[in-house]
């Protein structure tokens, strides 16, 4: 297990290899210092505390003890400081790799995963895994100390030391059983920790719904249930850990009992001095401390291995496929959808879809919920692979275009508004090289300048989690400004005004029209009054294209679109 874990840890501790080497060498130094300190016990009791001891002898013994204490200070400090430094650095490196991996997984992965579990993987599992390095060093340092103390005990009295060899098999058995049980249980502990984290994340995210539906008790019960499961899983591991420690101490106490009886007869017969006995007892007592720490390190190693299994399970997941080799610098002609069929896994969402969008056109996708409108937007962005049929941009199949290049062609304004918990400026710049003049122009286009200027710190104002400090209309206008600064050839409006009140919708709609300008626009529309002047409207029903044309043409047909329009007018 040590070899397997060390192999997995090596890439993360390799940058600090010199500190690792020094940490191991300091383990040897600490063990040696401990042994030298024990070696002074015999002369201290046999001679140093004797009435016949000279001042010179006492001073020399005191100076030796002080010297070892002074030497121990930097050795112990550097050993444990570097140990924690390497462990924390390894934690940061593993955590960064896990998070980076999660960012590169396909969208379909997140639909089947719990956010809390992923947070637990990123925070808890990475820390437990990296702590395996400390456990490995403990498994080097503590046996070294144990061997030194065993050697000192053997030097003090080899016959009494044989007792330790009698108890050794029992200690090995305890370590083996406890380590195996902890490793088996730790997977459940980390799984339940993820469930608990998920419940907390879910409960906090749903605070509005919780209050609106008076669900505080319901959400609290879910949390309590998850916490109880986590507690029970923890206690299984704690039971094994805490049972192992007193077992080790019980075996040690039995050994001490036997040693005391045996030593009594040896001292009575004159075969052993009091100084030798105390030196032996000191070595044996100190020997039990590394044995206890070895037991703890063995448990932590099992926990680290369980965490490693979960982390490397994530690392082994297949990332979002980018098989594209072609690059398109601009959108010049048309987007063509041919015989497109798509399913999320439970029935086709899009069925044999065929349509074409010309450069400069403003087109709308309309239809009842579940008709495949937003799915088509997702496919255009390459969030899901096209498996049946094709989508072509200027004659290039989108699965042949590099994903980054494909997404650079589109600017998205979605009903699912997302703003980082940062300043207005940071949310609009998004790590781009943008000057203040461009920012001002973007705010003008989005009708956001007035409200941003009235914010407490202007464009430096923090917008809150997902923009919580702003109204829905203000949030959406910032996303429009963000899309403007991206300056893409094609704009995707995915029901961008569906969640807004009438007044906010009118302002946002004007901002969208400003943003659109001469660009190609593909809009998923819920409110049909906003698309009456569009060049082409595609009407979808249960994944199929059932009508297409202008607003006037479709109203004249008196089919699906006319029904949708009448419904929208009533609402």
Quick synopsis:
The protein has 571 residues and is of the alpha/beta class. It contains 19 helices and ten strands.
Descriptive account of the structure:
With 571 residues, the chain is α/β, with parallel strands linked by helices. The chain has 19 helices and 10 strands. β7 (490-494), α17 and β8 (520-524) form a beta-alpha-beta unit. The protein has helices at residues 2-13, 17-39, 41-48, 55-103, 107-111, 115-156, 158-205, 207-212, 216-268, 274-315, 373-380, 403-408, 424-429, 436-445, 449-453, 472-486, 502-516, 551-557, 560-570; strands spanning 334-343, 348-358, 362-366, 388-393, 396-397, 410-414, 490-494, 520-524, 536-541, 544-549. The strands form 2 sheets. The protein has a 6-stranded mixed sheet with strand order 6-7-8-3-9-10, with helices on both faces. A 4-stranded antiparallel sheet has the order 2-1-4-5, with helices on one face. The protein is 65% helix and 11% strand. α7 (158-205) packs parallel to α10 (274-315). It starts with a helix and ends with a helix.
Quick tags:
single chain, 4-stranded antiparallel β-sheet, 6-stranded mixed β-sheet, 19 helices, alpha/beta, 10 strands, 571 residues
Shape: elongated
Please trace the helix and strand order, writing H or E for each element. HHHHHHHHHHEEEHEEHEHHHHEHEEEHH
What is the CA-based Rg, rounded?
35 Å
Residue fraction in strands: 5-15%
Q: In order across it, which strands form the biggest sheet? A: 6-7-8-3-9-10
Report how far the terminal alpha carbons are from each other: 65 Å
Number of strand elements: 10
Number of helices: 19
Q: Which residues form runs of ≥5 with pLDDT under 50?
A: none
Structural class: alpha/beta
Mean pLDDT over the residues: 80
Largest sheet: 6 strands, mixed
Helix content: 55-70%
